[in-house]
Amino acid sequence: MTPAAGKPFHPKRPHRKSRAGCRNCKTRKVKCDEGRPTCRTCTARNESCVYMAVSRRASPPSPPSPPSPASAASSPGKEPASTLVPIVARHAAAATVPQQPLFIPSGHSELDMRLLWFYSTVTYTSFSTGALQQRSVDVVLKVDVVQHAFANPFLMNCILGLSAQHINHLGLENMGISKSHEIYYRAMAFETYRKAVAAAEPATFPAMLATALLLCGLATHVFRGDEAVPLSIMDWMMLWKGIGAIIEVTKFPRLVKSGIARLIFRPEVDFDASSRCLPSYLLFMLSSIKEGDPEFPLVPRYYKALQYLGSLYRELRNGFSQMLLLRIVTFVTYLDKPFIENARERRPRALIILAHYLVFAKFRVKTCWWMEGMSDHEIPNISRFLGPEWAHLLRVPMAALLLDDDKDIARLLLDDPSWDVPTKMEDEPLTLDDERTLAIRAARGEDVTAGVDAYQDGKIGIC
User: Fold this and answer.
1) pLDDT value of position 397
2) What is the pLDDT of residues 363-402, one digit of tens each?
3) What's the superkingdom here (predicted)?
4) pTM summary value
5) What are the residues whose beta carbons fall under 8 Å from the beta carbon of 304, sequence distance 6 or more?
6) Residue 60 confidence class, pLDDT cut points 50, 70, 90
7) Which residues of the chain are in CATH 4.10.240.10 domains?
8) Average pLDDT over residues 310-339
9) pLDDT (tens digit, 9 = 90+) per residue, 86-133?
10) 26: Cβ contacts below 8 Å, ≥ 6 apart
11) Is residue 133 exposed (0-12), middle (13-18) or buried (19+ Cβ within 10 Å)?
12) What burial class does residue 11 get, using C-beta atoms within 10 Å of its C-beta: 0-12 exposed, 13-18 middle, 19+ buried?
């Protein structure tokens, strides 16, 4: 009897070739399951999975992506119909404008990827300082933080919410991000972060640290618009202290290994030199407290906060430098928890110190977009709360509200009408980074070809 005799005939099962497989599988000539971001074969072999670009004409139509955990079952409201935002390739030889996102990972929506693209192109720079060529922290913000975000939904929610807030702050209507999107992602960020803090899983500590930093920018909506709340700076300071709390429970080598540790750099403070730069009336505010006064035991605490404030005065004498920006942004992290508690108790001298810090936060040249409007909102609130009795110590903060020019604000702070920007800084470019500028222009639907040419010709400054 032949082998075929007595056996039913089975036609050969059709085989679908893996035309869009990863590079490793194609090299080995094995079938790739095309799993994203890593196929099963590369996962088993612990190899980096890289997919080659496939033309749209040759690719089969892909099914719509399911909503992501970060954006829940459905995004708020109906997602606006908008074209994908173009981005200028940074080192492209020609002025090509590929579309973003290039692909949508499983579990995420097109809206998620659009926001993630904007973060990795524009928003991340809000937490980085220094010349672009020297900013090693950018790799952490653009790569390490994003990698942790895909594994930790609370960090992804924070990134998407911050990006949505930034887009609306810039008025980029072409991005198709509504206010409801911003509110939704922000609410999800805080809710999922609270759950992560309650769980306190050691594996999530690096992502929690990155989230704690980004939340300080995300939470500034309370200083602007319809969502503004008086004296919100007290709660905002507690968010900053949350960074220290996470560091305390995390073994530092774990943070170093994760790549996140570079996000928590703070410049040193020369206390003696900073003390000499303080206005005399602020020092007198403390020296006038006599023994027996209820606040006399708090004098050392207030003086330490003034020394940190003095580092801002000292740095300002050197002009509007990147170091000044770094000191302004990180100022709250230096304040100890007892001082913050005194401020939350609405103690006058603590509020006066904060009011003077807010004058520095008013600078427009170097401060972050998420700090804009904070000073104009909170200085009047502090003044109204303290009343006429303390008005003489709020003269400078109140006068700063009437000024818009950075040079005039600096002269007010330094009490020097003749002060000017140091000559060595006159030629410092104060424009946005070339990549960020082009991305914003592209998001607005502007022609970016001229911008690419200017970048290639070296005409665009990097701040």
Assistant:
1) 98
2) 986 668 999 999 999 999 999 999 999 999 999 999 999 9
3) Eukaryota
4) 0.71
5) 336, 339
6) very low
7) 16-57
8) 92
9) 333 333 333 333 445 555 566 678 899 999 999 998 899 888 765 444
10) 32, 52
11) exposed
12) exposed
pLDDT value for 462: 24
399 and 412 Cβ atoms separated by less than 8 Å: yes
Residue with tokens 């303390």: 390
CA 137/CA 124 separation, integer angstroms: 10
* pLDDT above 60: residue 70: no
| Longest CA–CA separation in the chain, Å | 114
d(CA 179, CA 184): 9
Q: Which CATH number fits domain 16-57: 1.20.1250.20, 1.10.3720.10, 3.40.50.720, 4.10.240.10?
A: 4.10.240.10
pLDDT for 36 beyond 70: yes
Angle at 117 between CA 112 and CA 120, to 5 degrees: 125
State how far the alpha carbon of 188 is from the alpha carbons of 68, 211, 225, 380, in Å: 12, 12, 21, 31
Region 215-222 average pLDDT: 94
Single-letter residue type at 437: T
The CA-CA-CA angle for residues 238, 325, 386, to 5°, reads 50
